[in-house]
Amino acid sequence: MAFPLRERLAPVLPSLVVAAGVFLPWIQVDPAHDGPVISVYYGGMGNGLELVHGIVLLPTVVLLSVAALAGRRSRRAELVVGVVGTVAVLRFIQLWDETFVSAAGAWVTLVGCLLLAGVAAVDVVRERGLPTLARSP
């Protein structure tokens, strides 16, 4: 079954957002922190590739995008990656408080994972013809 262009491009934008977030810093010193800051470097202060999250998410979203562009899209895989990525990044964000907080990369990656899960979920609902609020009698 050949997918139309919209179907092929649907997971690419969220994947690009995830990839952009992975290349940004995930941890920073809290801008509101008063007082001394210990001289320490945590993985993620440079970018998300210093963390397992980034190492796993980046090749996974690239693979999903390449598969979609080649016409071999897997909505279920996109949904799983989006949901698991969202949970993992949310958990990471919750771990940091006080002196160090989550930086832009974690938040951008979270948005990308949410978009990926959302795009996949909408397409799964359309594919299966499940009732939605918009189509309810």
Oligomer kind = single chain
**Strand tally:** 2
Question: SS-based structural class?
Answer: mainly alpha
List low-pLDDT spans: none
Query: Based on CA inertia axes, which overall geometry fits?
Result: elongated
- SS field, number of helical segments: 5
The major β-sheet equals:
2 strands, antiparallel
| Strand neighbour order, sheet with most strands | 1-2
Radius of gyration: 18 Å
How much helicity do the residues have? 55-70%
Secondary-structure element series? HHEHHEH
Mean of all residue-level pLDDT scores: 86
Beta-strand proportion: under 5%
Distance between the termini: 31 Å
How does this structure look, described?
- Helix 2 packs antiparallel against helix 3 (52-69) and helix 3 (52-69) runs antiparallel to helix 4 (75-95).
- Strands 1-2 form a two-stranded antiparallel ribbon.
- The relative contact order is 0.22.
- The protein has 5 helices and 2 strands; from the N terminus they run H-H-E-H-H-E-H.
- The chain has 137 residues and is mainly α.
- The chain is 58% helix and 4% strand.
Q: Topology of this protein?
A:
Elements: H1 5-9, H2 12-22, E1 27-29, H3 52-69, H4 75-95, E2 100-102, H5 104-128
Antiparallel strand pairs: 1-2
Task: Summarize, please.
This protein is mainly alpha-helical. It is built from 5 helices and 2 strands.
Please describe the structure with a list of short key phrases separated by commas or semicolons.
mainly alpha; 5 helices
